[in-house]
Each structure stands twice: as structure tokens, then as C-alpha cells.
Amino acid sequence: MTPELIRDALRQVRYPGFSRDIVSFGLVKEITCDPGQTTVAIEVQTRDPKIPEQIFHDCHAILDTLPDVGAVKVDIRIKDAPAAAAGAGSVGKSSIPGVKHIIAVASGKGGVGKSTVASNLAVALAATGDRVGLCDCDLYGPSMAKMFGISERPMANDQDEIIPLEACGVKLMSMGFLLEDSSPVIVRGPMATRYTQQFLRQVAWGELDYLILDLPPGTGDIQLTIVQTVSVDGAVIVTTPQEVALIDARKAVSMFAKVNVPILGLIENMAWFECDAGKRYHLFGDGGGVREAQALNLPLLGRIPIDIATREGGDAGRPVALLPPDLNKVSAAFHELAAGIRAAVPNG
Ligand SMILES: Nc1ncnc2c1ncn2[C@@H]1O[C@H](COP(=O)(O)OP(=O)(O)OP(=O)(O)O)[C@@H](O)[C@H]1O
Ligand SMILES: [Mg+2]
Hints:
By secondary structure, the chain is an alpha/beta fold. It has helices spanning about 5-10, 50-65, 115-125, 145, 190-200, 220-230, 245-260, 290-295, 310-315, 330-345; strands at about 30-35, 35-45, 70-80, 100-105, 130-135, 165, 170-175, 210-215, 235-240, 265-275, 280, 300-305.
């Protein structure tokens, strides 16, 4: 038996709630194969005892069946994790000093409107006096430079923290602020983890009521790093009414549930298109988000139509939620969403 074969076998062990395996997440720290004895050391950052238990069990289930391994010893080292990753009891606390609430905007499928929702939610919360930050955690395809019309670069303070840029009353940090326009973003594995931790910990967010995290789609390195690094008060899952999006939304819901991040609710984006005559066309199907929220027993926090002003606002750096809610229906929907988030977050 060799460490390489053991490592390969461990690729079948998934991190609970994620479709990725513990090897690709970099959690397998050491493998030794001595005659009659195989030892693997795995490092997990969590305060939820069920996660190391599950990994321990799954590792044994795989390794014990291999030939020539001898006695198998699975040594799980638990690193201390932020309070809220521990579970519902600690909800409401943040592990970023000065930040009261951390809200993740997530989805299973790409392109369903997370960044649009995150930017408008941030603007709508800020419009009513909350102090709001928005962290673009999508290192691969950052959106916030474009969505807030930012072309400057952030500076550092004398503690070597990045000073977030500010637009539309929101403090912002994005990989897009650090990159040349056309440079490709190749950030994977440990690098993605390091950048994500820096965006959360080494940015001078200051005093905030809400820090909104705009996530990349799916359940990968960045999602795992976030739940291991800070205490997320709740996640908002964005979906379109289409079945392919709903299937992936379910996966995202189950991932957050497994790591004890409360799901605040679903948002059905691109729910319909209304023509000038007022007729509604359900381009991606009618009411998929509504039914899914019912089936999962989650609140439906909002239904956002396909809307030209919303798309244009995103492209022009002026989120549609800046428009007065009494004059624009989509802005009104985002302001309602903000009210729903405030109500859903304890002490919000
Ligand atoms: N309600 C809407 N009406 C019109 N256009 C929309 C709406 N929501 C999103 N869009 C547009 O759809 C595109 C994708 O939206 P967005 O970037 O917000 O999705 P995303 O889920 O963040 O994507 P990714 O998975 O790539 O991060 C953008 O061009 C955006 O302007
Ligand atoms: Mg996005």
C-alpha cells in the first residue's frame, strides 16, 4: 500500500453537505503507510461534532475495505472554528469585529442573479440607514466593479488592511478592484481559500449592520472557506423558476443546512416578463420558486421579474434599488426583500 493509493481512495469521501471530496478541499494533511498500519491525518475546522464524526466514519468505510492496509488509524484534528458555524445557538454573533450580521447570497446554478440581488439588497438596506458592506466573494467572475461603476483601486491602511471602496452608500470589496480589465482570474484551491479569508478578515469593514456576501455559484472552496472563517447569520438562495435552477438551489439549501447556516429564504428571480400592455410572460416557467419554497418549508423572500431597468442599472453601475420604490416596482421588490431580511435576522 502507498500513500498515493490511500489518497486516491479518500477522494470518495465527501465533506458533509458538499459534493467535493476531502482530498480536493485540502483537508488530508498526512498519510503514512507502515507495515501493518496505515495512518491518515485529516484537519477539519468546525465546532459541529457531527462533521468530524461523519468524515471519520466515511474514511473508515472506504479504507477498511482496501487490501494491505493493516490497522487503519484515522486521526481527525479539529481546528477551532468561528462561533456561528457551530449552530443555531450562536446565530446573531459575528466573528468580524464591528460587523453585526453577515448574510450570504448564494445559488446552486450560475447566472440566476445572485450579484444582481446582492447589490440591490445592499443598496436597499443602506437606503434606510443601515451601515452596509458588500463583499464580492466570486473570485472567478467578480461583478461588483461593474455593478457599482468602480474603476479605482482600494488603498491599504497602516494596519495593512484593505480600505473598502464606497458607492451608493455601500462599502465594497471585490477581486475586480484588484485586477486589470482583461486579466484572467485563475484562483483555485488554497489560493481561493487565502483570498476569501483576506477579503473577510483583512478588509477594514469598520462598523456595519450588514455585511452581504455575494457568492459564486455552487458549493466549492469559497463556500467552505466562508462557513469555516466567519459566522454567517443566514443565507439567501436565489433561483429562477426553471427546474434546472431549482434542482441546484436544493443542493445549495442542503449544503448550508449541513453546515448549520440558517436559510433565510428563497428569492425567485426572472420570475416573469411584463410587456407594455401588462401581460405577463413566464419565460422560465410559472411559480417554480413559490412551489419550491413551499416544498422546502422556507419563506419566499421575493419575486423579481425580468426587467430591462434592472439589467441596465447593473451594467451602468446604478442598481435599480436606488430608484424610489414608489415609482419603480422592481426597486420596491428589493426594498421589500431588505425588510424581509431585517425581519428574518435576529436583532436585525
Ligand atoms: N431580474 C432581472 N432582470 C433582468 N436582468 C437580470 C435580472 N437578474 C439578473 N439579470 C441579468 O442577468 C445576468 C446575470 O445576473 P447576475 O450576474 O446577477 O447573476 P449571478 O447569479 O451573480 O451570476 P454568476 O453565477 O455568474 O455569479 C446579468 O447580466 C444581470 O444583469
Ligand atoms: Mg455573480
